[in-house]
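Retry 2 of 3 after timeout on previous attempt. Resubmitting structure tokens to design endpoint.
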């Protein structure tokens, strides 16, 4: 009985992570394709290739290292491409994607990024993680004002299940959210239809201007806004992060999938935190099975990408974001607790948390990077007593 409960928890954590990762940014990928002159069918092709790549790499890395490593597409990278890729063709964009992926691969081979990460104290890493995630927690209650019945029911189910059946709390929240949205008529099923996705090859064109204007910024935001928090999540949960190996695998895989729409894949942070929580498994050494389950769901998502693109569009955005926030309540709490566990790091951790939680963006680099930087600067300026 206990084994079946653990299996269900791992599957639920993996499923919730994939649902949140897929639904929270699919609209961005859609916009990128349209900006580059593509079609809705091409969106499905991109999601097909990205899903397969994320699934295979998540399963492979998690099983090999026996730690919960979840790979995701670059959400901030997609947001960047909507503006930076304007004026370039699909072929030129693919060339820039391959150049960005090559830079990630070189970062892994040389090991310079891992050496930097090893020097960041866990308290600062936890503070940055808390800053990245706290807005998702706050959004739960922001959306409650818009949809009190839907979000209120999800929060109530979470609190009751945390007391009565904590192992199944997120599964029950997921079910409650879908049922409540369906009962209140907030899911439009008219556009649902099964359709298989197909690969679409785009020959790369290596345009120097595109590589500089698109490839380099994509590399920077992927490393600072995606891989950096992803490594921080692993450190915050006391897992040894195989930084260089992860960069090698994602960078090399990205080079191969770029001609099929794989613009950027990287270490997941927010969704990976779901697979590392106590809800996934009470034993931290077994939580890698949750990310393996997530990899399996990624592959299923990829196969049905054409159908899922329409299905996701029918769900209320408030449901998806609230589901993400509720799933991260435990992780937010533990991150803040660890960030403030040592009085010497308190001020630096607080600054890291506040900067990361802000909307600060300088030189197209997001707040996570600046949070780490200012936190480290605070530590350097305040001498240890």
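Retry 2 succeeded. Sequence:
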């Amino acid at each position: 009985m206990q084994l079946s409960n653990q299996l269900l928890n791992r599957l639920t954590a993996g499923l919730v992570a994939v649902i949140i990762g897929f639904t929270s940014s699919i609209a961005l990928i859609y916009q990128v394709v349209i900006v580059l002159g593509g079609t809705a069918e091409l969106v499905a092709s991109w999601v097909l290739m990205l899903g397969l790549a994320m699934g295979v790499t998540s399963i492979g890395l998690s099983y090999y290292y026996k730690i919960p490593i979840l790979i995701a597409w670059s959400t901030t990278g997609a947001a960047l491409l909507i503006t930076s890729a304007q004026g370039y063709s699909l072929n030129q964009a693919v060339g820039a994607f391959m150049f960005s992926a090559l830079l990630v691969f070189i970062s892994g081979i040389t090991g310079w990024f891992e050496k930097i990460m090893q020097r960041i104290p866990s308290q600062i890493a936890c503070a940055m993680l808390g800053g990245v995630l706290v807005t998702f927690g706050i959004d739960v209650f922001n959306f409650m004002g818009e949809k009190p019945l839907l979000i209120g029911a999800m929060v109530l189910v979470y609190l009751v299940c945390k007391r009565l059946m904590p192992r199944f709390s997120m599964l029950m929240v997921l079910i409650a959210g879908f049922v409540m949205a369906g009962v209140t008529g907030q899911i439009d099923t008219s556009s649902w239809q099964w359709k298989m996705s197909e690969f679409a090859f785009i020959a790369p064109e290596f345009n120097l201007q595109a590589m500089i204007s698109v490839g380099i910024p994509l590399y920077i935001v992927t490393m600072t806004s995606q891989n950096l928090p992803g490594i921080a999540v692993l450190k915050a949960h006391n897992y040894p992060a195989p930084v260089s190996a992860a960069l090698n695998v994602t960078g090399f895989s990205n080079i191969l999938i770029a001609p099929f729409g794989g613009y950027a894949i990287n270490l997941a942070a927010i969704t990976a935190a779901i697979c590392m929580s106590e809800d996934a498994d009470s034993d931290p050494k077994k939580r890698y099975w949750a990310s393996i389950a997530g990899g399996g769901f990624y592959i299923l998502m990829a196969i049905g990408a054409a159908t899922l693109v329409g299905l996701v569009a029918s769900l209320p955005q408030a449901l998806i974001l609230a589901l993400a926030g509720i799933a991260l309540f435990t992780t937010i709490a533990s991150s803040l607790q660890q960030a403030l566990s040592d009085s010497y790091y308190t001020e630096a951790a607080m600054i890291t948390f506040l900067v990361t939680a802000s909307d600060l963006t300088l030189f197209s680099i997001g707040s996570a990077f600046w949070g780490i930087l200012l936190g480290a600067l605070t530590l350097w300026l305040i001498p240890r007593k």
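Attempt log closed. The chain has one domain: 2-381.
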